[in-house]
## 1
Amino acid sequence: MSPLPRPNIHPPVRPPAPARIVLAFGSNLGDRAGTIRSAIDALPAHGVTVTAMSTLVESTAVKPGGKDETAPRYLNGVALAQTALPPHALLRAIQAIEAQFGRVREEHWGDRTLDIDIIAYGHLLLADPDLVLPHPRAAERDFVLGPWLEIDPDAVLPGAGPVAGLIGRATEFPGDGA
Ligand SMILES: Nc1ncnc2c1ncn2[C@@H]1O[C@H](COP(=O)(O)OP(=O)(O)OP(=O)(O)O)[C@@H](O)[C@H]1O
Ligand SMILES: Nc1nc2c(c(=O)[nH]1)N=C(CO)CN2
């Protein structure tokens, strides 16, 4: 006797849950606030949904040699977001938005219309040549930690601990905090 044909039923396919990500924005040239807002507005078209945006804070530019009072001052802000993009696709997306808003890569830590950094991608720890997660300098940057804490008081920087315990502690150069 031949077996009964099996009904062609598949378990429901659930898409993977989107990752919770933290993005940092900086600008010290042109219409700083306008450029950062435009970049935030551009994110959904790239598959990134913003769930919270901090206020923008102003700080002295940090250059490789330390604080530079003669350089244009920065506005910085942080967004919480969700995305189904894998990490490297997210990097390409933020670089496309930087390019869209006139970012030209020249001097290391040079003045720029727009900088977007991936601060954290869920709890992922990654050290690829082109992508390090969490962002390797986030723990020393009060201009990132302050706005992040504002929108998530319980924020944790993967591998480093609660943001509330990092802020104001270590800076890349003494007094470089926001
Ligand atoms: N977490 C990350 N977020 C964004 N870029 C990263 C990250 N990790 C590594 N990168 C790499 O860093 C490279 C340089 O980035 P970028 O020019 O924005 O640096 P920067 O803004 O001048 O300095 P910083 O990274 O200290 O903020 C990018 O091309 C990218 O490949
Ligand atoms: N205040 C301030 N200084 C910086 C910033 C920044 O966002 N804010 N970003 C840099 C490289 O990404 C270098 N220096």
## 2
Amino acid sequence: MSTANRPPRVLAIAGSDPSGGAGIQADLKSIAAFQGYGMAAITTLTAQNTHGVTAVHAPPADFLTAQLTALDADITIDAVKIGMLHSVDIIMAVEAWLARVAPPVVVLDPVMVATSGDRLLDASAEDALVHLAQRAHLVTPNLDELAVMVREPVATTWSTAREQGRRLAELLDTTILVKGGHLVGAAAPDAIVTPHAVIDVPGQRVTTRNTHGTGCSLSSAIATLRASGLSWPDALAEVKAWMADALTASSLLQVGSGHGPIDHAHRMRSTGEWARGAWVDCASLVTRITELPFVSGLGTGSLDGDAFRRYLAQDVHYLEGYAEVLAAIAESAPDPTTRAFWLASCEAAQAEINRLHAQVLGDADETPAAVTVEYLSHLRRAVESGSYARAVSAVLPCYTLYSDLGVRWRAVSRDNHPYASWLDLYGEAAFVRTAAQAERLASVAADSVDRAERLLMSAAYRTSMHFEWRFFAETPLMPA
Ligand SMILES: Nc1ncnc2c1ncn2[C@@H]1O[C@H](COP(=O)(O)OP(=O)(O)OP(=O)(O)O)[C@@H](O)[C@H]1O
Ligand SMILES: Cc1ncc(COP(=O)(O)O)c(N)n1
């Protein structure tokens, strides 16, 4: 299912919301936010704004079939997200198409009623929608839709919602994403529920009225990440973190005076920019790193065990200095939240040192290699410059490179892989999130300095990336 470096081709089958917050407009923005290629087959046209829906026009169902047929005749579809379907005719057209094409990822958001309270599905079409839901790999009802689908009163507690999700999973024999967005309280929990298990993905409620389109955006983003190779729970955790920021950033948009839209583009708009640019500038160096025999051998598992051990012995030396540098960065961090992030990273590095000593290296104490010494001197010089921004830039490749390698290694089979646990460490969603957060903090730092200092940040980043290349190239060749 993984699409490696090719963006997944994701089709939204949904209604149009001309105000851009929900429907296919939200789907296309969300798919793009997660780096997919978005397509849209339109089921219905609505006239709506942030206060509500004033009219609905549904073209004949045959015309939807014509759109879908034109697409599958030409384009391989990696994932489908289904939203507003409005009527039995449209549901049947989609069901017939799904039966014929069988896309590998199908996410159904069983849209029934808008945030504004307006009906988006004929009441007589509810049974047909439940029937269609059996063809989906993931169904994402809100609490009201969940209640309709299991024919029970609307859940008012999270435990009832989870139980209803379990019953719906059994009824449809598929996976359900139960959404707690409509509950009251400080938490906004969600869960991935199968007939056999419930995996909670916790979240904090963002205080805002701008929740128009959250369900549409969530389902299309998850379809995109699933087609990129993430599991449902990992995809949900990623999207929830993004959603929380999109809800927070929504206040800047000032779109309408009712329930406004979330800010799908918040990551493009703010932070991320300097760090992404620095990463792109190092693209050819990163390619050279991925092509090193040590790195490709790690991925395939063919790497010589002694070479890996020599690399780890140097890694421990590196991590000891790196942890000190992270502690110094935390000291000079501009605010308590940022400071807490760098301290947590420092603790993670120390935990990794202890793990390596306990599980792999014992008391063996190789001398530090030239590259280890030089790389650490470079990091310390960045700290000693007194510039927080430059110090952060210098440590950043250690996050971005390993996160990138981890994602590449996700697709590798773990069967009898000698380095499986090491590959897992960097491929897991938590590490990818940590790396993304480090990038955001570096970009925030870049926004606060002048152009000359930003150039020094870029130089520090590139030098570190070069040391990463040398580290992978030289340490496995150290004398035993
Ligand atoms: N105020 C909030 N703070 C944090 N997360 C929220 C908030 N409101 C909704 N969410 C999250 O947004 C996603 C959509 O949930 P929700 O229950 O609102 O679905 P929905 O009702 O189908 O959405 P829609 O508003 O599009 O109809 C879920 O992941 C939910 O946890
Ligand atoms: C075309 C279309 N599709 C879906 C929704 C539901 O979104 P919300 O519940 O946030 O209004 C909508 N309002 N319009």
